[in-house]
Amino acid sequence: MSQPAATAIEPLAVRRLSLSDLPQVMAIERRSFSTPWSLAMFGLEVSKPSGISLAALHGQRLVGYLVCSRYADVWHVMNVAVDLDLRRRGIGTALLAALFERADRPGERYTLEVRPSNASAVAMYERLGFAAAGHRKGYYHDNREDALIMGRELDR
Q1: What confidence tens digit (pLDDT) does each residue in 69-90 have?
Q2: Which of 155, 153, 156 is closest to 75 using CA atoms?
Q3: Domain 13-153: homologous superfamily in CATH
Q4: How far apart are CA 49 and CA 52, in angstroms?
């Protein structure tokens, strides 16, 4: 049974993620994932001119981030995380809304992988227009859990 969402965190600002944000990103990443990205992986993604990497801030504190890369004709949402103490307060939704503000065009497509066991993330993605599009067997290295592939496509 899902828990009700906590009160939204205000004020929340979303801006481009910078290399100087990476120490705060790494702290959230390590608490959020059993197989966290490395600092080098974040550095590479943040430096790509074709990608969109965003930081959510509450005051001066980085409370969440999103990394999205452009591959041919599709945006791939690669990493979204919110500080453990602040989840279910609209931060992930705000990050994705900011991504869509920057990238949405008629016919634009997005894809992502998510753990099916992460029901709150799956529900958030569905609320934002993503739909299940398949599975990747044994995708997650820590426990060999399959990934749920989700996609979002805008009308042309």
Answers
A1: 999 899 999 999 999 999 989 9
A2: 153
A3: Gcn5-related N-acetyltransferase (GNAT) (3.40.630.30)
A4: 8
Q: In terms of DSSP bridges, do strands 147-153 and 131-136 run parallel, antiparallel, or are they unpaired?
A: antiparallel
76 CB neighbour count, 10 Å cutoff: 15
What phi and psi values does residue 35 have, to the nearest 5 degrees? -125, 80
Question: Domain locations in the chain?
Answer: 13-153
Task: Just list the catalytic residues.
Answer: 113, 125
Q: Is the pLDDT confidence value at 2 over 70?
A: no
Q: How is the beta sheet containing 147-153 ordered, strand by strand? A: 13-16, 52-58, 61-71, 74-82, 109-114, 147-153, 131-136
**pLDDT for 6:** 63
pLDDT given for residue 129 in this prediction: 96
CB of 107 within 8 A of CB of 155? yes
